[in-house]
Amino acid sequence: MNHHEAEMEQLERGGLPEPLPTNERVLWEGAPRWTSLAVRAFHVRKIAIYFAALLAIRVVSNIADGVGAFQALIGSTALIAVASFAIGMMCLLAWLTSRTTWYTITSQRLVMRIGIVLTVTFNVPFKTVGSAGLKVWPDGSGDIPLTLGGDDRIAYLHLWPHARPWHLKRPEPMLRGVPDAARVAGILSHALAAAAGGSARLVAVANETAPQIAGRSGPFAAAQ
To answer: Left, alpha or beta for 199 (phi > 0: left; psi -120 to 50: alpha)?
Structure first.
């Protein structure tokens, strides 16, 4: 696929549900990296380790009972098949999630188009964002969660896997597995600062999403 074809595919996948107002412009668009989703949202690595441990226990147990190593492995084909199916399904879900997700940062809001079967669009105006965090992984991809002000919330299950893990009471929308996450966070931080009428700054926080980008609080609005 040449550069022009790649751009056309990106435009077909991305975009917004309706044209932007004349005073608003797109700053960045992108999709999650499916490999990052597979490892950190669908826990493929943990599933593989779990089944590998089960397989090792079964093989060692059979050998201890006097069965040859090759026969012990052959006797575990059912477990290997189940493990392969589970890992394959999680990888497929991660790939489908990546293919059906599009994040857009404009000069005034974050737009999240998500959903494998039914596409839903969530609009997060910058005036509603309390803060935004950043976690960069070794491959350069990363997660950018946003805390929201006001009383309105999006249900955690409606957002998942585009939500910060374990924040069930006050769900936080999250750009997950974003390639070149540090650059995207920089774009977002400057956009938030511009919307707030201030300057961008980073606040170190003692949790999994340090550092944190300052924003401003307010009510949250979502459109489907």
So the answer is: beta
CA distance 8 to 15: 11
Structure tokens, 209: 């999403």
Pairing of strands 120-125, 102-106: unpaired
**One digit per residue, pLDDT tens: the chain, 224 residues?**
454 454 444 444 455 777 888 888 999 999 999 999 999 999 999 999 999 999 988 888 878 877 777 777 777 888 999 999 999 999 999 999 999 999 999 999 999 999 999 899 999 999 888 888 999 999 999 999 999 887 767 889 999 999 999 998 889 999 999 999 999 999 999 999 888 776 444 433 333 433 444 444 333 333 32
CA nearest 201: which of 136, 140, 131? 131
Query: In angstroms, what CA-CA distances link 166 with 65, 106, 156?
Result: 43, 28, 9
Phi, psi of 30 (to 5 degrees): -175, 170
What are the CA-CA distances from residue 69 to residues 51, 53, 96, 147 (Å)? 18, 16, 38, 53
- pTM as predicted: 0.78
3-state helix, strand, coil in the chain (%, to 5): 40, 20, 40
Q: What are the E-state strand segments in the chain?
A: 26-30, 102-106, 109-114, 120-125, 129-133, 135-136, 142-148, 174-178, 202-203, 212-214
Q: Phi, psi at residue 76, to the nearest 5°?
A: -105, 15
